[in-house]
């Protein structure tokens, strides 16, 4: 098993490439589409770097895995799929998120809330085969109802892709104030991750390093239990919920939440062009608190 991580510097998002080199197969987790909010322009430069990397090694892209519907960047899954193929994977509880945001954005009846935009829907305990690697889905709601972690294991090692549920120990944990989020639920999801073997490497979706530390795509269960500033050993559920809710009340909405969510709940598809050939995103006024 190999994992190669690519940092999208604008949103501090990690895209990971999980590889079975012997069988020349790979999966890409959480690809990013560049988006300039000031101009409304998209760009594929960063995801093209991942595409070129996969091509250079002559790997077959089997899966494009989204850990959840991101609120801080647009997904690059559609460009990746159109270029390299692969099946688009999302947790089945994305239907709950689609229903919530269909109302917020007042999408018409053509917007599907059955998750049929995705190729494979995973639920707790479902497995995907990537060569000799088994990828097991773990439902870890709290940040959103649909968050999934993915545990990848072969004969050599086990790693887990945690999405936004956990960050590096000096950064803490995901916010829970988006529609459908819940701090108590997140606490219990995190405890399930921390019950994995202590030497399990955790691959992060984001890193927002404290001053003096460089970006890093990984941490470990042991490091989280020892030093996560929000949820290390000794912090109970009540303490965590109080901290998380107080902190969330002080946070601004993510810079790209409005374009990101409406694109990502539709599997990364941009809106259809209107009769003038231009695509438009909607901005709900006073709808997000």
From TrEMBL:
PANTHER family: PERSULFIDE DIOXYGENASE ETHE1, PERSULFIDE DIOXYGENASE ETHE1, MITOCHONDRIAL. It holds the Pfam family Lactamase_B. Keywords: Metal-binding. SUPFAM superfamilies: Metallo-hydrolase/oxidoreductase. The keyword Metal-binding applies. This is MBL fold metallo-hydrolase. The keyword RNA-binding does not apply. InterPro entries: Metallo-B-lactamas, Mito_Persulfide_Diox, POD-like_MBL-fold, RibonucZ/Hydroxyglut_hydro. Residues 12-206 form the Metallo-beta-lactamase domain. CDD domains: POD-like_MBL-fold. It comes from the Bacteria. SMART domains: Lactamase_B. Signal peptide: none annotated.
